[in-house]
């Protein structure tokens, strides 16, 4: 009998979790498993703010996909997915195509610019290793260039971060630690540097615990970050950004670096493939399958799960993507064994910790609020746990964070 072919798209948290759990539970005689990813490496998306600020080298945030898959059980193909032809059960890659019996879409998120003029052209986004490297290099170049010009351009030393969500705040935490190093390295007066965070909502980290938010704002302000709250980015230009506080209060901020961290959407492959979605995110069935489909699963940032208690979607997180990967693997194992009853996915939210640089953080974990070194320790434990869940103890030893205070 022909073995079913399971094809997993994306080697991020959701995809790798699915692949590594499947290789443990499904025998080689039961199914062929294929994992496809754009790069031959996995990156810890949750550490990209560190690589972007330059506080952690980008090689520390990535590892070879083949280090965590069992090559006797999972075939790895490096390739970029362009489209899924659902009616033909075929995935079109940049360099070929592949058929599937079961498909897992785990292609992660992209930056959402909400159609704001100039953002795509003039702002950076923290989305992958390439963009992180580019942001780090760009900022460093501004510092390196500043003293070489006869007419000094102070805007070279202005860095604007759009959005005070978790990504914006975590990036600012790293940046605030990196800037004094850059000033020393390039003989730049620290007082000339501006780090400005522009947030449209009336508060930083909208919806998060106000006491913890106050701690984060005070900490970052002490390190030189200026917050513009209730202020929306309206346009990005080659010179900087245009912001507005209300209808009439429009202002231009001149800045050589603009990092847009104000929104994410699911991967554009979803819409390109004609799959019904809201900003690239598909409201999946309780068993994680695409509505109306028997054989396509969607996990991670391309999926959308409603929190019934508040009737709003859960924010897309690595925590959820990894939990979905485990359930998805169990459901696939059931299907290849001819079972039709599948497990329902329910997120088990253990908490949220937001770093404020490598030595400080805020968070709520297991119902307890924490700040400072305690929260920072917890964040590193969470980071190490993700490595452990996918790559086991050897990956924690290779890539783990042990600079515990
Ligand atoms: P990802 O882990 O991003 O993986 C997607 C994979 O698909 C990547 O390997 C990518 O290369 C690949 N891919 C993309 N397009 C293609 C294509 N066309 N063809 C082939 N391969 C492709 N969440 C938390 O829970 N805790 C945190 O502390 C946290 N911190 C974060 C910090 C930052 C800076 C950011 C940006 C996000 C953070 N998140 C955090 C959110 C979390 O990173 C995402 O929710 C999570 O990565 C989603 O997992 P995923 O498997 O869907 O996608
Ligand atoms: P987000 O959507 O959570 O936050 C974006 C922020 O940008 C919001 O505060 C929003 O009000 C603001 N904004 C939107 N439009 C704006 C505009 N025009 N001008 C100024 N501000 C504007 O996005 P994110 O922070 O990138 O997070 C994405 C996902 O990743 C979330 O689910 C988040 O929970 C998760 N994440 C988690 C962690 C963590 O747990 N430590 C860290 C990073 C990201």
Automatic annotation (TrEMBL):
Protein's GO biological process: aerobic electron transport chain
Ranges of residues in domain FAD/NAD(P)-binding: 5-325
Annotated Pfam families: Pyr_redox_2
Lineage: superkingdom: Bacteria
Cross-referenced InterPro entries: FAD/NAD-bd_sf (IPR036188), FAD/NAD-binding_dom (IPR023753), NADH-Q_oxidoreductase (IPR051169)
PANTHER family in UniProt: 64 KDA MITOCHONDRIAL NADH DEHYDROGENASE (EUROFUNG), APOPTOSIS-INDUCING FACTOR 1
Cofactor annotation: FAD
Organism the protein comes from: Mesobacillus subterraneus
Protein name per UniProt: NADH dehydrogenase
Alphabetized UniProt keyword annotations: FAD, Flavoprotein, Oxidoreductase
Record Gene3D superfamilies: 3.50.50.100
KW Flavoprotein (keyword) present: yes
GO molecular function terms noted in the UniProt entry: NAD(P)H dehydrogenase (quinone) activity
UniProt key word Cytoplasm: no
Entry similarity comment: Belongs to the NADH dehydrogenase family.
């Amino acid at each position: 009998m022909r073995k079913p072919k399971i094809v997993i798209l994306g080697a991020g948290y959701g995809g790798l979790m699915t692949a590594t759990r499947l290789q443990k539970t499904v025998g080689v005689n039961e199914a062929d498993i294929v994992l496809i990813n754009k790069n031959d490496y996995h990156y810890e998306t949750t550490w990209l703010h560190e690589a972007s600020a330059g506080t952690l080298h980008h090689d520390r945030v990535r590892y070879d996909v083949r280090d965590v898959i069992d090559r006797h059980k999972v075939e790895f193909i490096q390739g970029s997915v362009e489209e899924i032809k659902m009616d033909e059960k075929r995935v079109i890659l940049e360099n070929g195509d592949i058929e599937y019996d079961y498909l897992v879409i785990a292609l992660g998120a992209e930056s959402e610019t909400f159609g704001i003029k100039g953002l795509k052209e003039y702002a950076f986004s923290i989305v992958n290793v390439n963009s992180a490297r580019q942001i780090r290099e760009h900022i460093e170049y501004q510092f390196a260039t500043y003293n070489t010009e006869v007419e000094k351009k102070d805007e070279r030393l202005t860095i604007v971060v759009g959005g005070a969500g978790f990504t914006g705040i975590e990036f600012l935490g790293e940046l605030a630690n990196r800037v004094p190093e850059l000033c020393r390295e390039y003989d730049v007066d620290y007082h000339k540097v501006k780090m400005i965070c522009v947030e449209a909502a009336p508060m930083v980290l909208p919806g998060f615990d106000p006491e913890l938010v106050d701690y984060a704002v005070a900490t970052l302000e002490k390190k030189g970050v200026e917050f513009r709250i209730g202020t929306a980015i309206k346009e990005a230009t080659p010179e900087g950004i245009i912001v507005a506080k209300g209808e009439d209060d429009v202002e231009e901020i001149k800045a050589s670096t603009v990092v847009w961290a104000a929104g994410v959407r699911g991967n554009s492959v979803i819409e390109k493939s004609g799959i019904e979605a809201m900003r690239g995110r598909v409201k999946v069935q309780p068993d994680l399958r695409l509505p109306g489909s028997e054989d396509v699963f969607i996990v991670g940032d391309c999926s959308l799960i409603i929190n019934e208690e508040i009737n709003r979607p859960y924010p897309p997180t690595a925590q959820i993507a990894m939990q979905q990967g485990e359930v998805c693997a169990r459901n696939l194992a059931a299907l290849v064994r001819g079972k039709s009853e599948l497990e329902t996915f329910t997120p088990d939210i253990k908490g949220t910790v937001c770093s404020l640089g490598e030595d400080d953080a805020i968070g709520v974990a297991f119902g307890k609020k924490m700040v400072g070194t305690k929260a920072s320790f917890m964040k590193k434990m969470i980071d190490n746990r993700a490595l452990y869940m996918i790559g086991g103890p050897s990956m924690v030893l290779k890539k783990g964070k042990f600079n515990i205070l």
